[in-house]
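Fold this sequence, please.
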Amino acid sequence: MNGRLILCSVVVLVASLFAQPAWAQKKGKNSAKKTTVVSNDSEIDNYDFLYADDGYDPTGGETINHVMDEAFAHLGARYSLGSKGPNAFDCSGFTSYVFGRNDFTIGVSSRDQYAKNMPIKRNELQRGDLVFFTSAHSGRGVGHVGIVVDVDPATNNFTFIHASTSQGVKVSSSTENYYGRRYVGARRVF
């Protein structure tokens, strides 16, 4: 029994050495042409076409990193209604300032930003997206905006940086009761 097992293993090994992979086989009249196999060293690593229109950043995340660096540079800045930075912000002043420093015009108010940028579903959220909430004075409409910092793909919960009225620029979570029940939607800038 062991001899047959060894013999079968040898036959499979030898056959695999001489077999041509299915992807390299040609069908039809041209099957006699020689097929060149590309080594892993020269494998194509440009997959841009896979990410077209998906918020793909062709700079390899460089733009998102610049946006997030700018946002975190203002952590702790005070809140002031109508302020557009750089020392004090309201929520939309903060987001428009951060994106503006990276050459993006996203709108001036939270409602304007909600209307002008590309709608996305919550399960599509990624770092750098805008998230919108109602506020005490906006009824069911948009009244507050922040920038996504991180997303848990299993739960679609996220953290975001924003200018809060009570503590200025800070990071909050969608799991906090206040924001969890006020979430309106999300938009993608790039």
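Residues 21-55 have pLDDT under 50 and may be disordered. Residues 58-188 form a domain with the endopeptidase fold (from Nostoc punctiforme) fold (CATH 3.90.1720.10).
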